[in-house]
Amino acid sequence: MSVCCSFRRHSAACFRGGLLAGSSLLMVVLGLPGVPRALAATATGAAAFADVRRFEIPPQPLARALAAYGAQTGIQIAFDSATVSGAKSGAVSGQMTDEQALSRILAGTGVRYRKTGSRSVSLVRGASTSITLGPVRVGGVVAHQNPTGPGVGYFAGNTMAGTKTDTALIDIPNSIYVVTKQQMVDQQAQSVAQALRYSAGVYAEPQGTNLTGSAYSGFDGIKQRGFNSSQYVDGILSDSFAAGETAFLDRIEVVNGPASVMYGQTTPGGMVGMSLKKPTETPLHEATVGFGNWGRYEATFDYSDRVTRSGNLRYRVAAIGVTQGTQMDYVNYQRVGVLPSMAWDIDSKTSLTVLGSYMYTPQTGAAGTAYPLVGTLIPGPEGRVPRSRFFGDPGWNTNSARDAMFEYQFRHVFSKYVEFSQSFRWEKSRNNLEYLYFSGRVSPSEFRRTAWYSQGKNRTVGLDSRLTGHVDTGPLSHTWIVGSDFRQIGTDTDIMFGEGDVIDIYRPAYDLHTCLRTPWSCGKASYPSSNTYFQEGVYFQDQIRWKNLSVLLGGRQDWVSREYIGGTRNYYADGSAATKRGKPSDQNQAAFTWRAGLVYKFDFGLAPYFSYATSFVPQTSSDWMGRPFAPLVGKQLEAGLKYQIPKTDVLLTASAFHINENHYLIGDPDHTNYNADAGMVTSKGVELSASANVTKDLHVVASYTYTDMRYARSNLTATVVDAATGDEGRTVSEQGRYVQGTPRNMMSLFFDYTLPFERVKGFGFNWGIRYVGFTYADAANSFKVSPYVLFDMGAHYDFGSIFRRLKGLRAQVAVSNLTDRYYVTSCGTNDCYMGQGRRVYGNLAYSW
């Protein structure tokens, strides 16, 4: 019999089987003699839903917990008895609002609540793909958020990235920063690198403007605490050449410091985690059209709705199409992509989410040829070259990518003590590159170029399976996790390089007919290779809580195997080719990594913390002689303070860190496109960060980063170069010198303010400032790349705030590098990367 049990109704209409039968069944389900008073609570006796009180409700059957909650608060709850049947509640202990307490009671049960009045709610079934419910607001303050969702404003209170459990950021003993969806929208970030411009500890664009949006193997140059970053999509390592389309993301998470215990292959600098859009519990319908300089035209579509009336089966489709030029002639950006997904709440304890995506990027917006050192950082004989100058060849200028992906996320709750989660990801990515790079300087205005050709294919399969649970041992509360993950990555590449020419940077001549177009005509050969990489790891973690003290302990064992096969492909006059394969080279590695940390959270919101963690990155590359590199191993000490102002969406973080990494890789100065082992490097510094919804109308993010990164122990030497002439001087040891390309100081501030005044209702504006300090251009610290300050600004207007017929229509404009500052982001001994000039982008968004 289906029974409707309501805290608001007292008539026979509330029950299908009659008032007496319904009331009797309700008493049996709840089993508490005090329930009738709770059910009969009236508006006169009920407290406000945002009232703060102390709760002590232990884990128990959900129906009993709701009865205890209703008796204490007087909140009226309507639900069907089948909705709570068999469900167990979480523990609720401490001072909190009535709504926060209800969120915690329902967390992990697969039951959601909806407000039906100022002091009444209704309950519905439906599991979530994550452990918690979506964002719940109490008086403008977030009570609890989906740890993989878009956040609220510029504030995200919870994350899965640091621990693979739903944990508040303030309870994690290391630095984690979240770029919310609203921040991406306000800044109109068109790549992951652009979205990370205001994140502490991150040097987002050392290689200048690159719109691919990928952090793959440092492909986009994203650095954390001085180390190359790696990208994880929904918790699984991604080797996609173009992953990270911001139109497909709900949030971006920056985990600074070693994350190997949970994820395996990460540098000690950290990782960047991305959460793809998934079906929403409430319908979402949005379309946008956008326009910008350099001929940008963009259209996006985002549609999510229910398949079934109950909402247990939902879908979402996001899509994008964009075309534009760039600040450099002959370099363009074009992309089309689609991301469909489906979420199925199989029952109150089981859920499955399935996603797929395809992106075609015929032109990635990345120029293979950089800018010359002389003529940019250092004025040449005829001054500086313009940003629009192209130094490659239009006929040998290809940079394209195709990416396909399938993913599922499964979750089942066995009991209040144990639940099972599994994530699977398959992706295939390929790219094609043809460009010319600077390979030497002939005179102050002439550079030698070399032609390059490569094709690459990546195939990745990743699976992460884990058991998670909660258990109490005396006064200690444990949130534990035990898991195993594996990934298999297959990479096929075919590269060829050869003849080029000399280019005058002030009067470039194009239409180069490189012999790589017809390699048989000049006796060129290509070098195909196959690299198969397999990693498996088992890990454990225990988050132990005793009163206000939290202790985090975790460990992981990894096993890695790699098979590499090189070869040579010779081309003949008739256009045929023959490939000669070399002998397979096997490499096996294993490592144990661990971490420990503690956090003490004071009642007034301050939380000091301390942690120690290690990292392990198996190397799949080789030096110029084909010798594989030793794995990168690192360790970090970090201490800091986190402060969340009570009853606000304001989180302040201060941290100090010290990292050592052995076998740090740098570009081989003597062999282009190869790396060299630089020995041990040390990175130490300080990070300050703020993310805040100061009011419902004012959102702020701010950061400051100080990083001192040096070669602590190295056998390598470097040659001092006179930047103005290119002449080489004395040879010096790298030991003790600063690592090139790492700024010591970075600062940023960005705010968005929607004016609350009636005359300008719906109008808002934003403003930002970014400062990046100087960097050294080479390991010898021969010369510096100058610091720079950039300004960003924008405005937006909600037409529906005044014109009712235009409800859902929003206009926006965003300008980055407002003053059109000419700046260089990083340099080598021959070339430099140029920063992006003034970018103006506007769009119209319509939601219905």
Report on the architecture of this protein.
The chain has 8 helices and 50 strands. It has 2 domains: 52-125, 3-Layer(bab) Sandwich (Phage tail protein beta-alpha-beta fold), CATH 3.55.50.30; 284-847, TonB-dependent receptor, beta-barrel domain (Maltoporin, Chain A, Beta Barrel). Residues 1-48, 127-143 and 213-219 have low confidence and may be disordered. The protein has a 22-stranded antiparallel barrel. α3 runs antiparallel to α5 (98-106). The chain has 848 residues and is mainly beta. It is globular and about 85 Å long.
Nutshell version of this structure?
The protein contains 8 helices and 50 strands.
Record keyword descriptors for this entry.
mainly beta, 848 residues, globular, disordered N terminus, 22-stranded antiparallel beta barrel, 5-stranded mixed β-sheet, signal, Phage tail protein beta-alpha-beta fold, 50 strands, 2 domains, TonB-dep_rcpt-like, signaling receptor activity, 8 helices, Maltoporin, Chain A, 53% strand
